[in-house]
Write a structure and sequence with these properties.
This protein is an alpha/beta fold. It is built from 11 helices and 13 strands.
């Protein structure tokens, strides 16, 4: 199904979907197909696609695939948070759905999220259950971000740390944080939070939004009955150096913002120490003839560490 199959709303849109793309040509078509299938069943809606100066023809593809969507093609890559804010503040729906182009919505996902937000007596941010491409459950709901949990993530192997950082509720309930790859809230909630913090170029802006929401008494809700497929890492591994750089820079910025003295002084040292431990681990794994991917990751991580060790500018480079 394409946007041509979705009737234009007779009145103001009920739901606004904000989709931020950057070199997303390989993923965005499947995302849009699933999105328009969902929107055809829920009434007036609009789709706003903000393209962060893609160089692979993403903007041209979405204009052809989704002529009824509003495409905002930016002249430069301003990062996810700033681009998402541009889309949200250009939207006119009562409800906002933020969606990554590497997400495919399963049947009923948008309706489940919208129904929950609509019928809640409290302001909420709601997110669905993510699934891997093979259908297995993907970690989707996170415990409250704390300095201790940041240390666990930095020093433990990812597979060991993940169960300590996430939770897997069987029914809808409050959690510490959600992934921005797919989350819904009312426009009023988003405006009350002032949108995403644009100091986060990429990564951690979703956790920052959730922690600020909880401090204002806004519930952060896991909705496992809604489900989407998330091609986790599909965009990150196109440029692993950029992924490592922005991911760990976002951790430093998040810690400085939310963890006070420890976040400003100890967290950057923890990040750098954790990265050197990972470099050592990649070097050991890469020495095995059958694990050449770790050599590639190690080289990318080493370059990212070099960038992180330079004095940070007020605006992370793209």
């Amino acid at each position: 199904m394409t946007s041509r199959d979705v009737h234009a709303p007779a009145g103001p849109p009920h739901l606004s979907v904000v989709l931020v793309t950057f070199n997303s040509r390989d993923d965005v078509e499947r995302c849009l197909d699933s999105l328009f299938a969902e929107l055809s069943l829920i009434g007036p809606s609009e789709v706003i696609i903000v393209d962060n100066a893609s160089e692979d023809g993403t903007a041209e593809l979405v204009r052809r695939k989704a002529p009824m969507a509003r495409t905002i093609a930016l002249d430069s890559n301003i990062g996810f948070a700033a681009a998402a804010n541009k889309g949200a503040f250009a939207a006119s729906g009562e409800f906002l759905l933020f969606l990554n182009p590497d997400v495919v919505l399963l049947e009923g996902a948008v309706r489940s999220l919208l129904k929950h937000v609509q019928h809640s007596s409290r302001n909420q941010i709601v997110g669905p259950q993510f699934r891997f491409l093979n259908g297995d459950a993907q970690p989707s709901f996170f415990r409250e971000p704390t300095f201790f949990r940041l240390a666990l993530e930095l020093f433990l192997p990812y597979r060991v740390a993940l169960p300590l950082l996430t939770e897997q509720p069987l029914r809808s309930r409050k959690v510490g944080a959600l992934s921005g790859a797919c989350m819904m809230m009312t426009r009023k909630t988003f405006e009350a939070l002032g949108g995403f913090d644009e100091r986060f170029f990429l990564y951690s802006e979703d956790f920052d939004l959730c922690i600020r929401a909880r401090r204002l008494g806004i519930d952060v809700i896991a909705l496992p009955e809604g489900a989407v497929v998330h091609a986790l890492g599909s965009s990150a591994w196109k440029n692993p150096e950029a992924f490592y750089y922005h991911y760990y820079l976002s951790k430093i910025l998040f810690a400085r913002k939310h963890f006070g003295f420890l976040g400003s002084t100890v967290a950057p040292l923890f990040v750098v120490t954790g990265l050197f431990l990972r470099l050592f681990g990649y070097a050991c794994m890469g020495a095995l003839p059958s694990r050449s991917e770790y050599r590639v990751r190690g080289r990318a991580l080493a370059r990212a560490v070099g960038r992180l060790l330079r004095p940070m500018s007020s605006r992370p480079e793209a």
